[in-house]
Design a protein that fits this description.
The protein contains eleven helices and eleven strands. The chain is an alpha/beta fold. It has a domain of about 210 residues: Rossmann fold, CATH 3.40.50. The protein has a seven-stranded parallel beta sheet, with helices on both faces. Strands 6-11 form a two-stranded parallel ribbon. It has a two-stranded parallel sheet with strand order 8-9. Helix 3 packs parallel to helix 4. The chain starts with 7 loop residues before the first strand and ends with a helix. The model has no long low-confidence stretch (mean pLDDT about 90).
Length: about 325
C-alpha cells in the first residue's frame, strides 16, 4: 500500500450517515486524495483534501470522474425501492473501476441479507434466505458485484449490523418509545423484549473496519465480513432500555423472568413479518477478528454518548 498522502480513495455515499463519519475519519488520518460523489456540495464535508464530484449512481460519466486516478473505491450507497436501478448502478461502478485501473472495491452491504434462517449464530458462511425485498435486493447487488469483479478487480463485501451513532436513526425509535411512557408500559415492554439482542454496532466500529479492510496489504478478493458487536454482553434490549431510563432520570427495572415472554415475542415478531424472529440469534464477527481487526470502541460508552446526544438535541 502506498503512503497515505498518495493513496486515492473515492467514496459513493460519502454524504450519508456512515459516509460523513468515514470522510472525517480519513481527513484526520491525513489522507489527501479523497473524492466524494454528491448531488450537490455539502458544507459539512468542506476540506481542502476532499474533492466533490457532482453526479449520481446511474451516470457513467460521473462514476468515471469519481474513480479516475484513484486506488480504492468504497461504495456505501443504496437506491431505495428500486431493484433494477441498484443492479444497473453496480454494473456501471464495476465497469468504471476496471476501465480506470482501480485496485480495490469495497462494498458495504448489510448483515440482514441472511434473512430468515434457523442458525443460532449467523456468519459469512450461513446460507442466505432473504425474506423481504430490501434483503433480496441487497443480496442481489452482492452477487452481481462478485460475478462482475471475479479475476478482474479485488472486491471486499462488508455486512454491518444495526449501525448507531451521531446522525443515524438506529436506537432513535427505541429511545422515543421509552421516553415519556408510563412506568407500567415500560415495564411490560422491557420484560417482553429483555431476551432480544439489539445487534447494535457503533458507527466508529464500522468506520474503523472499513478503513482497515480498505487499506490492508492482504488480498481479500471476494471475501465477506460481518461487522457486529453481538459479542458484547450488554448488546440487548434490557440493558439499552435501562440506560435510556437512567440517563433521562427515570426509574430502572430489575431483570425479572416472565414465563413465556420469549415465546410471545417470537409470535409477535412473526406477526409483524420480521425476517429475524428468533430474538436470541447473533451475528458473529469472528472472521473479521481472525483477519486481524481489533475493535477499540467501548460499546457501553458509545451507547451512553448516543443517548445523551439525543436527549440534548
Amino acid at each position: 500500500m502506498k503512503e497515505k498522502e498518495n493513496v486515492g480513495i473515492s467514496i459513493i455515499g460519502g454524504t450519508g450517515f456512515i459516509g460523513n463519519h468515514l470522510v472525517n475519519f480519513l481527513i484526520k488520518k491525513k489522507f489527501k486524495k479523497i473524492k466524494v460523489l454528491t448531488r450537490k456540495r455539502q458544507s459539512s464535508l468542506e476540506n481542502s483534501n476532499v474533492v466533490h464530484v457532482e453526479g449520481d449512481l446511474l451516470s457513467k460519466s460521473s462514476i468515471e470522474k469519481l474513480v479516475k486516478n484513484q486506488d480504492i473505491v468504497i461504495n456505501l450507497a443504496y437506491i431505495p425501492n428500486n431493484y433494477q436501478a441498484n443492479i444497473n448502478a453496480a454494473e456501471i461502478l464495476v465497469d468504471s473501476c476496471i476501465k480506470l485501473g482501480v485496485s480495490r472495491l469495497v462494498h458495504c452491504s448489510t448483515a440482514i441479507v441472511s434473512g430468515r434462517v434457523r442458525s443460532q449464530i449467523i456468519n459469512e458462511e450461513t446460507t442466505c434466505h432473504p425474506f423481504n425485498e430490501y434483503e433480496k435486493t441487497k443480496l442481489a447487488i452482492e452477487q452481481r458485484l462478485l460475478l462482475l469483479t471475479k479475476d478482474k478487480i479485488e472486491l471486499i463485501i462488508l455486512r454491518p449490523t444495526a449501525v448507531f451513532g451521531y446522525g443515524g436513526m438506529n436506537l432513535v425509535k427505541t429511545l422515543n418509545s421509552i421516553i415519556g411512557q408510563s412506568k407500567v408500559i415500560n415495564f411490560f415492554r422491557i420484560m417482553l423484549n429483555s431476551y432480544r439482542y439489539m445487534h447494535l454496532v457503533p458507527v466508529e466500529d464500522v468506520v474503523n473496519a472499513i478503513y482497515y479492510l480498505s487499506t490492508t496489504s492482504k488480498n481479500l478478493s471476494g471475501e465477506k465480513f460481518i461487522i457486529s458487536a453481538d459479542d458484547e454482553k450488554n448488546n440487548n434490549y434490557f440493558y439499552v432500555a435501562n440506560r435510556i431510563l437512567s440517563i433521562s432520570n427515570q426509574a430502572n427495572f430489575k431483570k425479572i423472568f416472565i414465563p413465556f415472554s420469549y415465546f410471545f415475542l417470537k409470535i409477535i415478531l412473526k406477526f409483524l413479518k420480521k425476517s429475524q424472529i428468533d430474538p436470541t440469534q447473533i451475528y458473529s464477527n469472528e472472521k473479521l477478528k481472525k483477519f486481524g481487526f481489533n475493535n477499540n470502541v467501548n460499546f457501553e460508552v458509545a451507547v451512553d454518548k448516543f443517548i445523551t446526544s439525543q436527549l440534548n438535541s
